[in-house]
TrEMBL record:
GO terms for molecular function: hydrolase activity, acting on carbon-nitrogen (but not peptide) bonds, in linear amides. InterPro entries: GlcNAc_PI_deacetylase-related, LmbE-like_dom_sf. Gene3D superfamilies: LmbE-like (3.40.50.10320). This is PIG-L family deacetylase. Pfam families: PIG-L. The lineage of its organism: Bacteria, Bacillati, Actinomycetota, Actinomycetes, Micrococcales. Keywords: Zinc. One of its GO terms (biological process) is glycoside metabolic process.
Length: 259
């Protein structure tokens, strides 16, 4: 369920927009669960096929110095279990170094490659703009994901002469309909999803990431509080929870090639 909260108007109409496939890009294992797992659980429950692409293995995460050699494998395993709880089994990794992610042409090319291969209706990504109200949302790797994905979806994704080796490999140019960004500045939010019915699935997914969030009770209190606050920003009835996005129409009926 999408909410018109009297804020900047979302261009996305769930009543008329077809959603069959979604591809989500994040920096680290656990990012998608905090940012959008409620929405993803709603999508998969409705039969939408959702895939993840995680750009790093989370190798700089955790708290135990003795886990350095195994933390990446541990976090990948956590993400696999968490994803399954919200109906996702297709997970891709770019294996970039945690904390060093850049919107390089190497990364952008891989984003273009995967989108062309899967051809989703919606790409979900972390936001390229910093959130000054809650700077923890704006880890430099998060911003790099947003920049790389935004640069990939236009123009490289739909330009047959960008990264010609991809076209040579059979991955034809593709016009993405929608880009949904999360974890950006509050003032950019223009689309809210009521995820009240999927809070338990979202929290169960987050609970899997114990290597990053050992204080489970504090984590759950914080997430529940933030989701209720987002629900209030969305104009939902008291006690309802929401996730927020900045939705961008990349290609639609009004799109003119080259503009």
């Amino acid at each position: 369920m999408s909410i018109d909260a009297g804020r900047p108007q979302s261009p996305f109409d769930p009543e008329t927009s077809r959603i069959e496939r979604v591809l989500c890009f994040t920096a680290h294992p656990d990012d998608i669960d905090f940012g959008a797992a409620g929405t993803i659980a709603a999508w998969t429950a409705a039969g939408v096929q959702v895939s993840y692409c995680i750009m790093t293995d989370g190798d700089a995460g955790g708290f135990d110095p003795g886990q350095r050699d195994e933390i990446a494998l541990l976090r990948i395993a956590e993400q696999k279990r968490a994803a399954a709880l919200v109906g996702v089994t297709d997970i891709h990794y770019l294996h970039q170094r945690d904390g060093y992610l850049e919107a390089s042409h190497e990364v952008i090319r891989e984003v273009v490659r995967l989108i062309r291969a899967l051809r989703p209706d919606i790409v979900v990504s972390m936001h390229p703009e910093r959130n000054w109200n809650r700077i923890q949302k704006s880890h430099p790797d998060h911003l790099a994901v947003g920049e790389a994905v935004t640069r990939a979806v236009y123009p490289a994704l739909e330009n047959p002469f960008a990264y010609p080796e991809l076209a040579d490999a059979g991955l034809a140019a593709y016009k993405l309909p929608w880009l949904w960004l999360f974890a950006g500045p509050d003032e950019r939010e223009n689309h809210f999803v009521d995820v009240t019915d999927h809070i338990d699935s979202k929290l169960e997914a987050i609970h899997i990431h114990v290597s990053q969030h050992p204080d489970v009770d504090a984590m759950e209190r914080t997430v529940r509080g933030l989701m209720l606050k987002t629900g209030r920003r969305a104009g939902l009835p008291a006690g309802r929870s929401a996730e927020a996005f900045h939705v961008v129409a990349v290609n639609g009926p009004a799109t003119i090639a080259g503009f």
